Amino acid sequence: MEQARLIVKALADAGHQAYIVGGAVRDLLLGKSSQDIDIATSASADEIRQAAAAHGWGTVEVGAAFGVIIVVVGETTYDVATFRAETYGEDSHRPEQVQLGVSLTEDLQRRDFTMNAMALDIDGNIIDLFGGRDDIAAKLIRTVGNPYERFAEDALRMFRAARFAACFGFRLDPAAQAAFSPNLARVAGLSVERVRNELQATLIAPWASVGLKIMMVTGLLAAECRNTEQRVARSVPILPELGRLPGLPQNARYHKYDVWTHTLATVDNVPAAAALRWAALLHDVAKGWPGVRTVNKYGQPSDPGHERVGAEVAEQILLRLKVSSAVTGQVAWLIRRHLILPVPEEKKVLGWLRRLARDFRNIREFRQQVDQLLELHRADRLAGHTMPDIETLDRVKELVAAICRQVPFYPGQLSISGKEIAARLGTGPQVGKFQLNLLERIQTGELANTRDSLLAALTARLKRQPVSNQD
To answer: Which of 170, 258, 348, 384 has most Cβ atoms within 10 angstroms of its Cβ?
Structure first.
């Protein structure tokens, strides 16, 4: 913030109006640090560059048409923008016309929500023309002016409203919520990348379920956006698969809530990592599907195989939303295995870990996914299960930690290297085969993972079969 104030002062000293604006002012009132600090000024792009150059700051031009210049102070960048007004047209997100050189009032008036439409001057005074400070105190998300017009201008603002609710735990102004429905058709013009970014930011926020509820009840999740490749646009469903979950019953013997309520609680219960939150959101997505939903002999709903079908559905969803392949793979893996947990006995847990280890290349990836799987198990159990049995889960978790400290699962964990083995067995596939043999024997307790023990095993191997060098 102090460096931003230096930019404001430099512009003011050069005879221009300048203010810190937007989210940074909101975060200041909330007592939060701000990652991005924006500055609005009466100065033109050329005048911004001149003021920066006079202080030895670098500049980068990123949006001349919008009057936006990035000013670089040290290693930190700041968006400095000329006061502007905007007129929207057919595009669902970008303005059709931009008018530069307007007043501060007009610049603030074009913004989305009152809490984002305040300015901070060089003396620390807050300019609040639309009641943003009061709305923050009331924990209310309210648009600047007519909500129908704000959402018609930029349909992404509806997703941003849900995201802000998830970030701050605020409620949405009823008038704003009522304006979603008549503007849902505008979502079709939004890029899938922008929608995905808002969804993921909502998912990893502290009050994720609050934002997800808004997206569900307003119809955002059932809407479609677009994907454009090689100048050809096609419609992309956002998350209509979740639409069947509200009110979908579960077996009352094991579950207190319907599937959607349980899903939201699971999301809130897991740590705020993208893969975990996506897995929590989609772990029961296949419940209620034709071919999955059945009725058991007691007349209760049941969904055998929903973890397998759900993993496939989740992968399809994340691929169309262009979620990274790494996250997509992690999510599908977690969902496919979210029902299976071994009994808390060392032999059973070791066998379970040996099977899981085949899916990964190294111990780091393996431990990360196993730890996330246990987190998903915990969140799932605490999200309305009648018999969560967290004690058993904790015992399994303790055994996992103890086994992973003592037992190797990958060749790189062995106390002798592949190079040492190759020096005596010769290079070729026999090295990898011997490493796998060592791992199996250590895991079954036949060998200790010590240098002496493994070298003795190597010597015994050489006595049974001579060296075969395939260089």
So the answer is: 170
